Structures are given as structure tokens and as C-alpha cells.
Amino acid sequence: xxxxxxxxxxxxxxxxxxxxxxxxxxxxxxxxxxxxxxxxxxxxxxxxxxxxxxxxxxxxxxxxxxxxxxxx
Length: 72
Hints:
The structure is a single chain. Helix content is 11%, strand content 44%. The protein is mainly beta.
């Protein structure tokens, strides 16, 4: 449920069009009021979305907007 809600109400923050076998994107959404990152790939031919990974973003790596990576 959290993943579906994050994708429905979220937005793409990074796009990976050259990923193989399908282009993918990093989504930022909210789950229970907390930020959630979802990497999903779209298989357009089969009309399916494949969830690659889901995680809570690490504040040490992400700016407070959860959409911008911190610079090293």
C-alpha cells in the first residue's frame, strides 16, 4: 500500500532512461507522512510497472526536500 500511495501521489526526481531492459525512474512520495523513494521501471509493451527497490531516504545523503542529493 505504501508503495502504491507513494507512486500515486509522488513525483519523479531522477530519470534513468538508459536502464536495461527498461528505462526507470526514482520517485519521491510519502508513506504515512514519511518520505519514500521508489525506483520503478516501465515495461510499456506489457503495460506493467516493475518495482526495482523501495527505501526511506537517508538524511545524510539527501537534502531536506528529499529530492536533491547532497554534494560530497
